[in-house]
Amino acid sequence: MPSVTPGYAPDLEKYLKSLKGQPLQASTEKLISLLKRRQIRGSEPCAVATAHILLQVVAKSKWQDVEGLLDNVSGTGRRLVEAQPKELVVANMVRRVLALIRDEAAEDRNEPSSETQSEALMTPTDTNVPHQWPVSTYTKQDSAGDYISNSAPPQPTRPGVISSYSSVNVPKSLFNLLSASTAGDGPLIRNSGTSTPTSRGAQANSQVHALRSEVIDGIEEIKDEISQADDLIAGSAEVQIHPGDHVLVHQPSPTVERFILRAAAKRRFTVLIAAEAPQRQAGEDVHTSVFRKKLAAAGITAITIRSAGLMAYMSRVDKVVLGARAVVANGGVVTDAGAAAVARAAKEMGAGVVVLVGMYKLSPENPFDEASLIEWGDSSTFVSFADGPLVRGVEVRSAVTELVPPELVDTYITNLGTHSRDHLASLIADHYKQEDAEFHLWSSADQ
Q1: What residue numbers bound the domain in which 292 lies?
Q2: Which of 295, 344, 352, 396 gives 300 a disulfide partner, CB atoms 3.0 to 4.6 angstroms apart?
Q3: 217, 291: one domain
Q4: Annotated Gene Ontology MF terms (predicted)?
């Protein structure tokens, strides 16, 4: 069986290669199919695939203004979320791109025009006449040292005085390029050239091209953030883990592995690996055994414990490190099934619980129904269809993910540093726009 890069599904690399020669519609449909069939699964692969397809939407789709671009991105994002609603990172990436577009458009609207109103008033149109300041009075000092005010002679007004601000000083943005020709009824200052429909169309195309380039650059930065998140999180390992600590990890993800191995480079401690009970299929613990070999090569003692013996070891545990598939707005952590029991045991014994999460996994959603976040898997790992009477008489449900309550978590470590639960709200506000919180709902309503 060919080796697979940790944290990536086997079909992700093939899908990314196929984007170069495929039309946008075909690439979108293929990603939707892969998400539905769970051939691309996991937080990082889903985030990477979503970022790539949204970049294609910005680069290849047809749009003439910011509203059109927002509609294209939100429409595609809504279909991706419907294909796999359990992967919260898909909606997170769409919100990040929507916020990026709004920020770039806002910068264009606030960009100063080439000639402001004050500059138009201060610049003389006739070079033969000296410039006169629009001041009605001036002061001078008499012989006694007192300041007296004299009225300045009124200056003759020049033809073509600006009577409407909106007719001249219109911010140059995609939102009001077309409004410049109709705004204001007052006379305009005539320059050497006149505005023509051709020049306005060229300016509109230039603005569209500039915004497209800026948004594409922003999406590339988001992709870089995803690829560098694990390394930046691992940079906090030496501060969190001390020599002689007993650190408990539950079904370690690639992020957790990198975090532990970074600490192992300069620390000597003991790692307890909490694993689920053996199931019917062979090879369920291959990933854990590979991690144990890496720890042994780094000189770290690793002990594998089962869920039944968890409390027997918890009194020796100094810190629990958990990976996260997503973190919702209230601080709840969506992670692998069984982590909630580990967190509750750590809380009872006074051990700290640390969650490792990239910023792209932090979701502004705060669902009222927590059960909607749980993903259910194949029950055949626990009961076989060969057990006919048991299968017919018992409903067996096997949870793949579960929600760890926020009150069980002490610290969140992201690629931006270490944070408490109270600080999550400000992080969400920095990365998402309030109007995009329910983008998949208003997009479907518009259609």
Answers
A1: 241-432
A2: 295
A3: no
A4: guanyl-nucleotide exchange factor activity; translation initiation factor activity
